[in-house]
Amino acid sequence: MRPLSEEGELRLQHGGPPGGRDVLATDADGVPLGYARLELGEPGSAEDAEAELVVAPAARGRGTGRALLARLEELAGGRPLRVWAHGDLPAAAALAGARGYTRARVLLQMRRPLTDADLDAPAPLPEGVHVEAFRPGRDEEAWLRVNARAFATHPEQGSWTATDLALREAEPWFDPAGFLLAWRGDPAGGGTLLGSHWTKVHPPGDAGPDPAGEVYVLGIDPGAQGLGLGRALTALGLAHLRRTGLGQVLLYVEEDNVPAVALYERTGFTRFAVDVSWRLSR
């Protein structure tokens, strides 16, 4: 498991919106033992404070996690606090439970092999729809609009801004050839974006010893639901990753999104790991 989310890593590198705080635990010699990132949002916000926390393996069992969590609670003031634990580890559950936290969200990581020959089969698209690669400088506005509509109820994905997208376009892993957009009509002449499948490639050591693909963002505009577009875009994205020589693909999905979990299981994905958001109400 990666110790921090991608969002946490990006904010460490580039900073984040107002209200973010970095909390570091060190030993007497200044050696880092643990780290937490807290997001409070805009001043006066009534929404839950959000955080994620990680403790170095050698520092576990020595009160480092407890000290970091207490500091997060202090910084959150009287607001409810949600803290992500990457990996559903017994020690994290014991610490959260002892301080009165309850499980608020569960994020599944699912994986499947990319060695099946049937992934090379063409995927049928709805009539009048074609797929082409994302074109930087042209497609950002359309993609952000559809992303917001497709993930209107998602607490993070649906609120992406142009800055969030630009940060990822600047990352070394970004490859527009693996960012597939489904259009009705000409995208340069008033065409309508219906959905997309943005794939990602993790280098060796990032998601395991070998490189791995990811179903990074798969989103369908609500107005295009029911056309079979999600299934077609999933197949096209997996076939793209297979052609790059990868042997495995992963994705993240909310555990309570029962239809999506069932769809992915029918597509050959199985549960691999779990992230848990623990919530402390006030």
Automatic annotation (TrEMBL):
Binding residues for acetyl-CoA 2, per the UniProt record?
L218, G219, I220, Q225, G226, L227, G228, L229, G230, R231
Q: Name one GO biological process term.
A: mycothiol biosynthetic process
Catalysed transformations (reactions): 1D-myo-inositol 2-(L-cysteinylamino)-2-deoxy-alpha-D-glucopyranoside + acetyl-CoA = mycothiol + CoA + H(+)
- The organism sits in which domain of life? Bacteria
Q: Which UniProt keywords apply?
A: Acyltransferase, Repeat, Transferase
Q: Which residues fall in a compositionally biased region of kind Basic and acidic residues? A: 1-12
- InterPro entries from the entry? Acyl_CoA_acyltransferase, Bact_Acetyltransf, GNAT_dom, Mycothiol_AcTrfase
* Keyword Iron-sulfur applies: no
Write the protein's name. Mycothiol acetyltransferase
